[in-house]
Amino acid sequence: MTTNNYFRGDAVKKVWLNRYPADVPAEINPDRYQSLVELFEHAATRYADQPAFINMGEVMTYRKLEERSRAFAAYLQQGLGLQKGDRVALMMPNLLQYPIALFGILRAGMIVVNVNPLYTPRELEHQLNDSGAAAIVIVSNFAHTLEKVVDKTQVKHVILTRMGDQLSAAKGTLVNFVVKYIKRLVPKYHLPDAISFRSALHAGYRMQYVKPDIVCADLAFLQYTGGTTGVAKGAMLTHRNMLANLEQVNATYGPLLHRGKEFVVTALPLYHIFALTMNCLLFIELGGQNLLITNPRDIPGLVKELAKYPFTAMTGVNTLFNALLNNKEFQQLDFSSLHLSAGGGMPVQQVVAERWVKLTGQYLLEGYGLTECAPLVSVNPHDIDYHSGSIGLPVPSTEAKLVDDDDNEVPPGQPGELCVKGPQVMLGYWQRPDATAEIIKTAGCIPAILR
Fold it and tell me: What is the C-alpha to C-alpha distance for residues 113 and 102, in angstroms, rounded to an integer?
């Protein structure tokens, strides 16, 4: 890679703008909020008594989420003595504990380090050491992995939760018993100094939360990427990066979405950037309800959950959509409320897209993104009435172009490297200036994908 400026001189001529629907703007305002904390607190006040997250039948309102995340933030500050800018790792599937911890970490002015629960000990050790995480919030199912490496890291505090810990007393006890003793999903572990998530919350309620001064340039996430092609690197995503991408999604799909009335199905893991932005953060800003699916591989169980609710939006990947379409019970569901189906992560196959629209009446809106762009780069227009098989159009306030090996722009229809510039582009890779210089060119251009 060179360090040439791929966007020399005048801004790229955005020829795709004439393909935008009339109700989608060319530019967005990434500074409507100063931080994700401001966005969250605004939503928590406006939609206080509305459901925010649902998991295993348990409903958590925006008010409860605000109270619990505030208590968790206070515990991180006062109970553990952590400071603004400290990194806190999250290692769990989609549970109610996730948004509580997520917004608690952000409200404390700290940086979220999402960790894939299926990591091997080697992968976990690398990410904890590379990020310098001072604490980790982990579900007990994966505590045995942490036990093998925690002494080799800088982690000083382990906060441990069980699958059912945010459910009602009776249901939570039953879930924890079944998970551990019937399904045997909790291998033995030994973490004697671990603090229970419940205890942390109870203690936090009695502590004073001190709201830190958070600005848009502060880091919000270290989101790791590239582990399949080399050593995983932490993409430094600021509050402004995330806010900008949320505004871009809102501008693109806003005509399909209604504040305070949306119900999104979250089967994709929140620790992944796609669901983190498209499901968790977007629908918090919209005041929507979020159905958290803990085990999306259990398709019959997922379909049973879907049958209980009039869901309006769903994100997924090709394999998930295909598995659902092959389930007879899914074919019998009521799709009359569904008005947004978004696919990403991998190409959506033509046959899957055609079967989806035939069954649900909704086209799968395919897009493209990458962790380094928080993640959305391009999407198909919301008014499209066919499966294009493409990554769509660049989202508002985004410049994009294809270049050859010599950094010269290539004509339409020719292969090249897709380069992206916009407010969603990451700050760089954590503690990797050489890798940052290699990928982020002058004026914030980032090579996105080889095509």
Answer: 10
349 DSSP 8-state letter? P
Q: Are strands 233-238 and 219-225 parallel, antiparallel or unpaired?
A: antiparallel
DSSP assignment letter at 270: T
> Among residues 122, 162, 113, which one has the least CA distance to residue 142?
162
Q: Phi and psi at residue 259, in whole multiples of 5°?
A: -60, 135
* Burial class for 5, CB neighbours closer than 10 Å (0-12, 13-18, 19+): middle
DSSP H/E element including 428? strand 428-429
d(CA 31, CA 23): 21
One-letter identity of residue 250: N
At 185, list the tokens.
């999903």
Rounded to the nearest 10 degrees, the angle between the axes of helix 36-46 and helix 97-107 is: 120
Taking residues 119-136, what's their average pLDDT? 98
Digit-coded pLDDT (tens) for 237-249: 999 999 999 999 9
Structural domains for the chain: 34-450 (3.40.50.12780)
Kindly report the pTM of this predicted structure: 0.95
Under the banding of pLDDT at 50, 70 and 90, the label for residue 286 is very high
> Cβ(264)–Cβ(273) under 8 Å?
no
Identify residue 418 by its one-letter amino acid code. Answer: L
Could you give the angle at which helices 239-253 and 36-46 cross, rounded to 10 degrees?
A: 50
> Tokens 């769903």 correspond to what residue?
314
Residue with tokens 């722009």: 409
Structure tokens at 207: 């502590």
Measured distance CA(288)–CA(257) in Å, rounded: 10
